[in-house]
Amino acid sequence: MITASHNKVNDNGVKIADPSGGMLTQEWEPFADAIANSPTPQHLVQLIDEFVKKENIRFDGARSAEILLGRDTRPSGESLLEAAKQGVYSIVGATATDMGILTTPQLHWMVRARNKGMKATELDYFEQLSSSFRCLVDLTPNQIKMNKTDDKLVVDGANGVGGEKLEVLKKMLNSMVIEVRNSGKEGGVLNEGVGADYVQKEKVVPQGFYLKDVGIRCASLDGDADRLVYFSVQSNNASNIDLVDGDKILSLFALFIKEQLSILKMEGDDHVDENYEARLGVVQTAYANGASTDYLKQLGLEVVFTPTGVKYLHEKAAEYDIGIYFEANGHGTILFSEVFLSWLDARNNELSSKSKGSEQQKAVLRLLAVSNLINQAVGDALSGLLLVEAILQYKGWSIHNWSELYHDLPSRQLKVKVVDRTAVVTANAETVVLRPPLIQEAINVEVAKYPRGRSFIRPSGTEDVIRVYAEASIQEAADSLANSVAKLADQFLGFGNSG
Ligand SMILES: CC(=O)N[C@H]1[C@@H](OP(=O)(O)O)O[C@H](CO)[C@@H](O)[C@@H]1O
Ligand SMILES: [Mg+2]
């Protein structure tokens, strides 16, 4: 997938999907790094040669490889796609199939579907999403009907690929009014003053949203449509928003799934063996707002933490029957285990004959519909958006009701340029610094000064900086804690200290 996601239009890059449709396996990352940085063509060929031997990859023509290629709307994507094709065709037995302009999750979905022997075109993707969405909406309890303003959703497409795909998808959903802005057709620049990354980090409205939108449910996608956040425009100031971030999307999903599981448990008959205890797990990172973690725990859910980066969250979530993961920035999905899905299928068949139309059967059907709607390969803004919409309809909630699940603790994120960010070694899902020595003790002293204070530092995986995160009970305290910790990072690791 040729994309640089939420970054500037002039940037570009690649994301690689594994045959499973998930992200490139972590063991292959050092190899990908090495070939991307190989200084000469000879070196490149040598690296590939060594890797092929190491991984015992056979080129005897017995197995041909098909590589699906996609790109986002960046102009440089066209020539990079040509380069990728040449690369693929230089491997004996390999062919490249250009799937066209796509969102990143669409391409992941296609790879997964293809290798499962399922239909895998773009139309199949849209059909799966729209039909499972309709199925979920049809299972909404009758007494719940939304009021007029809540009917409408306005989506910021980040001037990228997501907006144009949503235009196609929305035609297949008869029950919803979706207005797409910043679709890229109005002349705006990709990710400039628009998109999920901008909205979540700056906590302001994207371009094209105004005071007249107060009270309306709004959503924002990032440049390759694998991130999703919601927001509403505040009445006191047109640039202020009430942000509904990935943590709250996670909370909404977790609440809904938990509800369905408890309906399932209310057995009408006493067939105990039919009571399969589904393991439900929620996965977050240290960037998750502390209020969201409290909320999830108070729901009685198992909450676990991993280091930043969806590859870690995804891997962890796959350990459960239902694993829900989200980064605060809006990247996440829900994973269902094969065992649990087979159990749901069997349960559905049984209930069809015994108690068709019962609450239990509806809960089973809802869970099955969620598993078809939500992208099992990777976080997907379009499928996530449809699931949010279906759940809000199910609950009869406005964005305000949803936002009120809990109140975010004020937080602040800063970046610090340091001599060598790899000098920072962390533990416990990046919440504790092991090296350099003594900095963690100094951070602890700062944190202790603030009610509900929490702060950590970690080296970014995507930029040459140390990131500082702080939260506290009031904004001024979060800001001041972040500043003091940033100062510590600079003292211990900054250029003043480099000698
Ligand atoms: C604090 C933050 O938002 N970090 C982002 C960012 O990683 P860093 O390692 O923090 O640079 O980019 C990642 C890839 O998009 C995303 O997964 C992650 O959540
Ligand atoms: Mg993205």
UniProtKB/TrEMBL annotation:
InterPro entries: A-D-PHexomutase_a/b/a-I, A-D-PHexomutase_a/b/a-I/II/III, A-D-PHexomutase_C, A-D-PHexomutase_C_sf, AMG1_II, AMG1_III, PAGM. Mg(2+) binds at S5, D222, D224, D226. GO terms for molecular function: metal ion binding; phosphoacetylglucosamine mutase activity. Pathway: Nucleotide-sugar biosynthesis; UDP-N-acetyl-alpha-D-glucosamine biosynthesis; N-acetyl-alpha-D-glucosamine 1-phosphate from alpha-D-glucosamine 6-phosphate (route I): step 2/2. Binds 1 Mg(2+) ion per subunit. Signal peptide: none annotated. It is an enzyme of class 5 (isomerase). The active site is at S5. Interconverts GlcNAc-6-P and GlcNAc-1-P. This is Phosphoacetylglucosamine mutase. It comes from Populus deltoides.
